[in-house]
């Protein structure tokens, strides 16, 4: 058992703790978004996100006035990323094209380029980085993701000394995790 003291705490806090501002996102848009130049920009312009939650449902079975619990099915919450918008609008345009291919604004139809999940999904990776120049501390690969919402971008005459941002919400099938300790999920 660790010594409960400030020196014990400092000794246990390896690397002075991980920093939430040291992260990157790697995302390649599907061909239907037709914006190869946006791929690398997401890594630079993704301002906020999160490591996905891990949720396992529960099955509650009543038995003679008592409840007994068993593990249920896993669920994956939507994943959100806040993007800084530059004056080319290349990233926002790519997300809007992606969503329009999934369901058009006027026709309410899917583009033929988005006929199968392989056409309209991609994998996205969020990595927690170290303060040192070493491989990522952890990588979470969101498998088969696609956007479900491109958020509003607020405009305001009274807003000075800032840049435009918007949020993108993704759905994905599952995530796989790898940390400095190796895989922590059963992914490929």
As an assembly, this protein is single chain
Number of DSSP strand runs = 10
Portion of residues within helices = 10-25%
Topology pattern, helix = H, strand = E: HEHEEEEHHEEEEE
- Largest sheet, described in full? 8 strands, antiparallel
Mean pLDDT, nearest integer? 92
How much of the sequence lies in strands comes to 35-45%
Measured on Cα atoms, how large is the radius of gyration? 21 Å
Based on secondary structure, the structural category is alpha+beta
Structure notes:
This protein is of the alpha+beta class and 188 residues long. Strands 1, 2, 5, 6, 7, 8, 9 and 10 form an eight-stranded antiparallel β-sheet that branches. The chain has a two-stranded antiparallel ribbon with strand order 3-4. It has four helices and ten strands. The mean pLDDT is 92. The protein has helices at 6-12, 36-45, 90-102, 117-120, and strands at residues 23-27, 46-48, 55-63, 66-75, 79-84, 122-128, 138-150, 165-171, 174-179, 182-183.
Topology at a glance:
Blueprint: H1 6-12, E1 23-27, H2 36-45, E2 46-48, E3 55-63, E4 66-75, E5 79-84, H3 90-102, H4 117-120, E6 122-128, E7 138-150, E8 165-171, E9 174-179, E10 182-183
Antiparallel strand pairs: 1-6, 2-5, 3-4, 5-8, 6-7, 7-8, 7-9, 9-10
Keywords:
two-stranded antiparallel ribbon, 188 residues, eight-stranded antiparallel β-sheet, alpha+beta, 10 strands, globular, 4 helices
Task: Quickly describe the structure.
The chain is α+β, with helices and mostly antiparallel strands and 188 residues long. The protein has helices spanning 6-12, 36-45, 90-102, 117-120, and strands spanning 23-27, 46-48, 55-63, 66-75, 79-84, 122-128, 138-150, 165-171, 174-179, 182-183. Strands 1, 2, 5, 6, 7, 8, 9 and 10 form an 8-stranded antiparallel β-sheet that branches. A two-stranded antiparallel ribbon has the order 3-4.
């Amino acid at each position: 058992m660790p010594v409960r003291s400030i020196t014990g705490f400092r000794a246990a806090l390896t690397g002075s703790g991980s920093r939430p501002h040291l992260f990157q996102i790697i995302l390649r848009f599907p061909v239907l978004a037709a914006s190869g130049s946006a791929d690398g920009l997401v890594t630079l312009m993704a301002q906020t996100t999160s490591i996905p939650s891990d949720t396992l449902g529960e099955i509650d079975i009543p038995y003679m006035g008592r409840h007994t619990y068993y593990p249920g099915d896993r669920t994956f919450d939507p994943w959100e990323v806040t993007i800084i918008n530059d004056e080319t609008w290349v990233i926002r345009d790519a997300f809007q094209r992606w969503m329009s291919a999934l369901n058009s604004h006027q026709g309410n139809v899917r583009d033929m380029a988005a006929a199968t999940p392989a056409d309209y999904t991609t994998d996205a990776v969020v990595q927690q980085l170290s303060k040192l120049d070493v491989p990522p501390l952890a990588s979470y690969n969101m498998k088969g993701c696609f956007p479900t919402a491109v958020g509003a971008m607020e405009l305001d005459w009274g807003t000075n000394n800032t840049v435009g941002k918007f949020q993108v919400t993704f759905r994905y099938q599952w995530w796989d995790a790898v940390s400095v300790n190796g895989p922590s999920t059963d992914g490929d």
